[in-house]
Amino acid sequence: xxxxxxxxxxxxxxxxxxxxxxxxxxxxLVGNNEAGKSTILEAMHLVLSGxxxxxxxxxxxxxxxxxxxxxxxxxxxxxxxxxxxAPEILIEVFIAGENLPFFEGDGNSECKKECxxxxxxxxxEKHKVDYDDFVHAGEVTSLPIEFYELSWMTCARDQITxxxxxxxxxxxxxxxxxxxx
Length: 181
Hints:
The chain is an alpha+beta fold. The chain has one domain (2-164): 3-Layer(aba) Sandwich (Rossmann fold). The protein has four helices and nine strands. Strands 1, 2, 5, 6, 7, 8 and 9 form a seven-stranded antiparallel beta sheet that branches. A two-stranded antiparallel sheet has the order 3-4.
């Protein structure tokens, strides 16, 4: 079993849908500084583990998860009274190499039969009324993260937690410094 493709939308430096095809075995990402190499790895790790910088992503969610351009467009549109939907993050990891019927279906952005897991970070429908009140109350200076929810789904359209995902991820971030005193 291996990851054969990842799709990212509105996560950090990726605003429009970005798709990366992967080979079975070793893949090497090469590119200039700030091109998104680490962001691709962070996105895969986030979907597969639910962790961001070693902590549960639900507790670490901030405006900085989102593509800055999409956030600025959202705030500008709201503050000029133009209707716009809140930015959402979608990360899809597609799996190949093993029969996993629980993860197979057309519940993905392409509506094609695939095997995989999707993470969506979007406004929680349970808080839609409060969210609407908030965005119409006055000038919006930041993304209202408190109304967002993270949800994992299989391509079979079943809600899951990262614990049920058959591929595990370990991300070693060599540029994070931790000091012990």
